[in-house]
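As promised in the previous annual report, we have extended the structural survey to additional targets. Below is the entry for ATP-binding cassette subfamily B protein.
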Amino acid sequence: MTAASHPLSSLPDAWRGQAAPPLAEGETVCAWLELDLDTELRYARGALVLTETRLLAASADAPGWRDWPLGEGMRLALSDHAGVVAVELVDARARLALWRTTMAHHAGAVRLADQFERQLAALAQGGVAARLAPACPRCHAPLPEGEQDCPACEAEAPVEKRGWALLRLRRFARPYRGRLLLGFILTVLSTAATLVPPYLTMPLMDDVLIPFQNGKPIDYDLAALYLSGLLGAALVAWVLGWSRTYILAWVSERIGADLRTSAYEHLQQLSLEYFGGKRTGDLMARIGNETDRICVFLSLHLLDFATDVLMILMTAGILVSIDPWLALVTLLPLPFIAWLIHLVRDKLRHGFEKVDRNWAEITNVLADTIPGIRVVKAFAQEKREVARFREANNHNLAVNDKVNTTWSMFSPTVILLTEVGLLVVWIFGIWQIANHHISVGVLAAFLAYISRFYLRLDSMSRIVSVTQKAAAGAKRIFDILDRVSSVPEPAHPVPLGRVEGRIQIREATFRYGTRAVLRGIDLDIQPGEMIGLVGHSGSGKSTLVNLICRFYDVAQGSIKVDGVDIRALSIPGYRRNIGVVLQEPFLFFGTVAENIAYGKPEATREEIVAAARAAHAHEFILRLPHGYDSLVGERGQALSGGERQRISIARALLIDPRILILDEATSSVDTSTEQEIQKALDNLVRGRTTIAVAHRLSTLRRADRLVVLDRGRIVEQGRHEDLIAKGGAYYRLHQAQTRQLDPPGSDSTWDGDDEEQA
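The corresponding C-alpha cell record, generated without further manual editing, is:
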C-alpha cells in the first residue's frame, strides 16, 4: 500500500494502464483499497485511491473516476455489519460518498482510514504524511522496513523457519536418554562386529588360500581359527543387533505415544477460536497419521541411518589404515552423493508437505461425508461427493507424481556413482597389485568392505526420502504444539470459593476475526435471576453466552462473576460451576448413563436416574432395549432429537451448576415434549443464575428480565409484558413472528436462530 518510485507501482497490475486513476504530474499514491460491492450489495469491482491531496474513487455506481480534494473536517468513517464493511466520506456538514465492500478487505479499509487521517493532519501543518509501512498480504500486519517476510507469520510457523523439525523431538526423547545411550553403545558394538569378517578375509586369503595355490598344503588349524572368528563375529553381531533393535524400538514407540498424547492434550487446551479455522479431518490426520509416521521413522529408519553413518565412518577408518591411497579412491563418490542429497532435500521436504496437506484434504472429505451420510442420501448427492473425493484424490496423485519424479532421478544417480566408484577401485587395485604395492588379500578385503560401504551409502541416500516425510509430519505436529491459546490459563488463578452467581459485564466488545459482533455491552445479572436473550439472527446472543462461559475472551471490557474477573479464575474450576445445554445436543458414543454422567464421571446410578427423572427422560430411557446401558450410537443417532436434548439437559442437571446456560435448549423438541422439559426447567432454574437464549416465547415469558440485542448492542431490557407495551424492538420481533410463522391458536415464537456456533 505504499508508493514506490513510480506513482502507480503500489497498485495492482489490473489497475494500471487504462484502468489507472488519473494522477497529476508528481502525484503519487499513498494508500488504496479494493472494493467488491456496489451500494446495492451486488458484487462489482471498484477502488479507492488516496494521494497526497485528494481521494479518488471508481465504482459500478458511478462510471469513471471521481475525486474529492482533502480538506479540513473530512474523515473516513468505517462500520461493519453482517459481513459488509461500509466506508463513508464525510465532512463537517454531510456525507459526501458511501462505498461498501466485503470483510475480506476490512484490513485494507482500516489502513486507508489511518493514512487518510495522517494525510489530513500533515496537510494542516503544510506537509506530507509519511506513508504507512507495506502490509503482509496474509495477516495485514505492517512489514519491517526493507523486509518481505512477516515476523508475525514467521512466529506462527516456527518449525518451517527455524530449522529441522525432527531435532525438536529431543525433548520427548529426554526421559529415555539412558536407554538411548545404551542403544547407541550397542549400535556401535554391533556395527563393529559386522566389520570383523571382511578384515579376516585378508589373512585367510594371503596365509591359507594363496599359499595353497602355490603348492603348499592347507593349514587347517589356521583356517579353522579364521572361520571360527567369522562365525563368532556373526553371532556377536546378531545378539547385539537384536538387543539394540529391541531397545531403540521400545524407546521410539514411547516417544511416538508421548508425542501423540501431548498433541491431543495441547489441542484440548486451545480455545474454540482455533477449532473454528481448522478441519476435523486435518487435525485427525495430524495426530494419527503424522505421529505414526514419526514413530516408524524413529523405530526403523533412524536406526538404519545411525548404523549407516557408523558403518561408513568405521569402514573409512579401516580402509585408510590398510592402504591410504586405495581408500582415497574408494571415497571419491562420497562428495558427489552428499551434494546430490543437499540438492534434493528441500525439494523433497516441500513436496512431502504438499502431500500431507492433500492427504488431509482427502481425510476432510471423509470426515464430512461419513457423519453426514443421511444428508448426502436425503438429497441424492452421492455422485457429487464421489466426484469431490475423486478430485481430492487426483490432486493428491498429481503431487505425489512430482515428488516421485524428483526421487526417481536421485536414487538411480546414486547407484550409478557407486558402480563407477567400484569400477575405479578395481582398476586402481589391479594397478597396485601389478606394482607389488598390495596383496590380493588386501584387494579382496577392500572389495568386501566397499560392498558394505556402498550398500550403506545407497541406503543412507534412500533415507533422505523417509526423513523428509517424517520432518514434514513433525512440522505439522509442532504447528499444534506451538499454538498459544487465545483463552490463556492465569499464571496465579484467584481461588473461586462458593459461587453465588452474580455476573457483571462492563463495556464488553468482541470481534470474530475482523467482524465486530458485540459493542460495549453493559449488563448486571443478580444471583438466581433468569435472563432471556432475544434478538435477530446475528445480533450477538450466542457470542455473549460464549464469553460468559469463557470459550472466548472479550477484546475490550470485562466480565466478572461474584466481583472477580473470569480471566483471573482457573478455567476448569470456573466452568465446573456452569451447566450448558446447547442448541444442537451432542452425545458421545457410549451408553445413556455414561453420557448423562459425562460432567460427573463418579456419579452413582441413583444420581444419574434422579437427573434423568428431573429432565423427564427416565420414561423413554426405560423403553430402550437395555435401559440406561443402551448405546446411543455415533453422535446419538440411535435417539430422536428430543431424546438427545433431554439427555443433555439431564447431563447439565447432574453437575448441579450455579450458573445455567440454555442456548436454544427447547428448539429441537415438539410442543408436548417442550412442556415436559419446561416443567423440569422450572425446577432447574430455581436458585440458579440462568441465561436463556430461547426460540419460543413460552420460555421467555418465565424470565425475570429480557435483554434485547441488536447489532451487538443492548437496545431494550425488561419483562415480556412491559416490552410489549413499550412497542419497541421486542414488540416488532413479536409481531413479525406472530404474523409470519404462527398458525391461529399456537404459541407465539420469534426468529431465535443464532449465528455464532463455533
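The radius of gyration is 36 Å. The first helix runs from residue 106 to 124. These points will be discussed at the next consortium meeting with the crystallography subgroup.
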